[in-house]
Design a protein that fits this description.
heterodimer, A: 255 residues, alpha/beta, Nucleotidyltransferase, domain 5, 2 domains, five-stranded mixed sheet, 8 helices, 10 strands, globular, B: 413 residues, four-stranded parallel sheet, 19 helices, 8 strands
């Protein structure tokens, strides 16, 4: 059976097509202003790349904050259950999933079947999210894709104590004006994100193995900072950013 | 959409009667100036019975706070208080009420001016500064009824300390009203207060029936009378009527959620400006909030009341209320409610406004998961400040919570 998952996040829209457990293809575009347009576009382009007609796909599940704005989906499910299902699909031994997306971060405890045992989400504040990193990258004039690797070169990470994005930005600016090396500031920012996410994840029983999903999983600086906090390795997957869409496609086969 | 979605829940007959009683109550309070009756502003957990016995009209800024929240006026009023210099971290009832007192801007054109203020700190510490502010502004006497925190027990020294304040309270009222306290009348008020609390508990107990004839959202509505007018006959008569309506619903098979599949327990105050949205959202999952710790608080310390000596025993009853006990004691109350109402999950409102209620919730949540093995979720907001609520985040949490419950029960999501 061929199924699809569409994950509409605050920054990017993702699509995945799965056939009997095998990921046939994935696609990521910017969400932009219109959720439905983004959903149709990312899905249409992926089907075209795979050379699949729309009717070859038996069921579609939408997820992410824009999940209820995808009219062609058979069902909407939360990103929490989809990320858990996706992570379980990519790495069945995973017991904790940490997902840091554009506007929120969450941690999920997952059982041996990929079902969510417990979850916790950040509050409304943007600290500890992809948006926080975006704001900081802009303040430091660094391309977001280079952000992670730059911090790995830091000799002495700076200390960012504010947990609020706005206050942290002014803290970063004062560090810049004091001549703090850029790498140290970036490493400090990653550590601040990791500290916040780690504290949040403590509210659930975050057992290893831990996997990180969502767009921020591409940032090795955050992954390493989280590993230091948790004191255990954190797996990522090349499909981490589209993990929610994969989970949605996997769950679509069971509805 | 199932067929049940189109079935509108039947309205409660008692709702109309309650609105009438509340309207009459506020008309009387607002007209106190012309009838010569005194008005006392009192905290929601405060000992109101002596006021009723002295024929003083009790007025509750917190009940008013709920009205402000439900009429979506909280955000503007809180912003006004912030402009006056009050912190955004302060309780949204306090902010909205302080702004209203100065501006007369809220629902029903503001509360009637107080002749005296009665502040009992069994619910929180914020009320002390809140009422002191009012005392300075209105230039009226303030009585502070100080109830020591009871981690596990109520030692003799605390009993004596609180008891002595009851004597001082009576003296304060005699002075403020210019007449002696009537002991005979006060024991009659005490008897009616206890009767009202018993009936309110019985009303809430009807939701133990599967399916439930009422939800916590109904309880949030019907709560107003046991808070504001306990000790009066009208409250006793009203809850007797409401109880018979609940029993009638059970007999006739009228359920709050027509296809009740999941039963949930709510913790903390309601999100007043989102009652309908929350109620509809849970109902769309066939989930019924069958009970809550909040409305139960107005009958939760009945076990300490001696019906033959209400005034002698009220020191203990007013001190050992839900918000004035330790986290372990609170958890025990929640455990017993989970069993009594056969609950599948716990919804905790982490209410930035109410620190004593929200403090310890994460610990209680862990205890519930370990002891009862049911899933829990957290909703974050200020109960009366709609600017603090994020709909999409809350919706994601509720939907994920319901998916988790279904997965646990082995149901298809």
């Amino acid at each position: 059976m061929i199924t699809a998952g569409i994950d509409i996040g605050s920054i990017t829209a993702k699509a995945a097509v799965v056939e009997d457990g095998n990921v046939l293809g994935t696609k990521v575009i910017f969400t932009g202003y219109n959720v439905e347009t983004a959903a149709r576009k990312v899905y249409g382009e992926l089907l075209a790349e795979l050379g699949l007609p729309a009717d070859a796909v038996e069921r579609v599940v939408a997820t992410g904050y824009g999940r209820n704005g995808v009219p062609f989906a058979d069902k909407a499910m939360t990103e929490i259950i989809c990320h858990a299902a996706g992570a379980h699909h990519l790495m069945p031994e995973v017991r904790t999933v940490i997902d840091i997306g554009g506007q929120d971060s969450k941690a999920m405890a997952v059982d041996h079947k990929g079902a969510v045992r417990d979850f916790v989400m950040n509050d409304k504040c943007a600290a500890g999210t992809g948006r926080f990193l975006e704001v900081m990258a802009r303040a430091l004039e660094v391309n977001l894709d280079d952000f992670g690797n730059q911090s790995l070169l830091a000799p002495a990470p700076a200390k960012i104590s504010s947990i609020c994005t706005v206050f942290a930005e002014s803290e970063v600016i004062s560090l810049i004006s004091r001549g703090e090396p850029r790498e140290n500031i970036i490493a400090g920012i990653h550590d601040a994100v990791a500290a916040r996410v780690y504290a949040m994840a403590q509210r659930i029983k975050a057992d290893p193995p831990i996997m990180m999903t969502g767009g921020v999983a591409k940032n090795q600086g955050v992954v390493k900072a989280l590993e230091r906090r948790f004191g255990s390795p954190i797996s990522t997957h090349e499909l981490a950013q589209v993990n929610g869409a994969i989970g949605a496609a996997v769950l679509a086969s069971g509805i | 959409m199932s067929a049940a979605d189109s079935e509108k829940p039947r309205k409660f007959r008692a709702a109309k009667r309650m609105r009438e009683i509340m309207t009459e109550y506020y008309i009387e309070a607002k007209g106190a100036g012309s009838t010569g009756k005194k008005v006392a502003w009192i905290t929601s957990g405060g000992p109101v019975e002596p006021l009723i016995a002295m024929d003083v009209i009790p007025v509750y800024p917190e009940n008013y706070g709920a009205m402000i929240g439900a009429s979506h006026m909280g955000g503007d009023l809180c912003a006004k208080a912030e402009a006056m210099g009050y912190s955004t971290d302060l309780c949204s009832y306090a902010r909205a009420d302080i702004a209203c007192a100065r501006e007369n801007g809220g629902p029903i054109g503001g509360l009637p001016k107080p002749d005296m203020l009665i502040c009992c700190n069994n619910i929180c510490g914020t009320v002390l500064k809140w009422y002191e502010t009012h005392a300075r502004y209105f230039d009226v006497p303030l009585f502070i009824f100080d109830t020591p925190f009871c981690h596990t027990e109520f030692p003799d020294i605390a009993r004596k300390y609180v008891h002595r304040q009851l004597d001082e309270y009576v003296a304060f009222l005699e002075e403020a009203c210019g007449r002696p306290f009537d002991l005979e009348k006060s024991s009659e008020v005490g008897r009616r207060s206890l009767e009202g609390q018993r009936l309110w508990q019985e009303v809430l107990d009807t939701a133990a029936h599967r399916p439930a004839p009422m939800t916590a959202f109904d309880a949030f509505f019907f709560l107003a009378l046991i808070v504001t007018l306990r000790g009066t006959q009208v409250v006793v008569d009203f809850y007797r009527e409401l109880l018979s309506e609940m029993r009638e619903r059970i007999e006739q098979g009228v359920w709050a959620i027509p296809n009740e599949r999941f039963r949930l327990l709510w913790d903390n105050l309601p999100v007043w400006y989102r009652l309908k949205w929350l109620s509809d959202t849970f109902a769309s999952h066939d989930a019924c909030l069958v009970a809550d710790t909040y409305t139960t608080a107005w009958c939760g310390s009945m076990k300490y009341i001696d019906e033959n000596d209400f005034f002698g025993s009220m020191a203990e009853a007013y001190t050992r209320i839900y918000l004035n006990i330790g986290v372990d004691e609170m958890a025990k109350t929640i455990f017993s409610m989970i069993d009594k109402y056969q609950v599948d999950g716990l919804v905790m409102h982490s209410n930035r406004s109410c620190k004593p209620y929200s403090f310890g919730q994460y610990d209680i949540m862990r205890m519930v998961q370990e002891e009862k093995g049911i899933p829990c979720m957290i909703i974050e907001s200020h109960m009366t400040d709609e600017r603090s609520f994020s709909e999409s985040q809350t919706l994601t949490r509720i939907e994920a919570f319901m998916e988790m419950i279904r997965q646990r029960k082995g149901l298809r999501s």
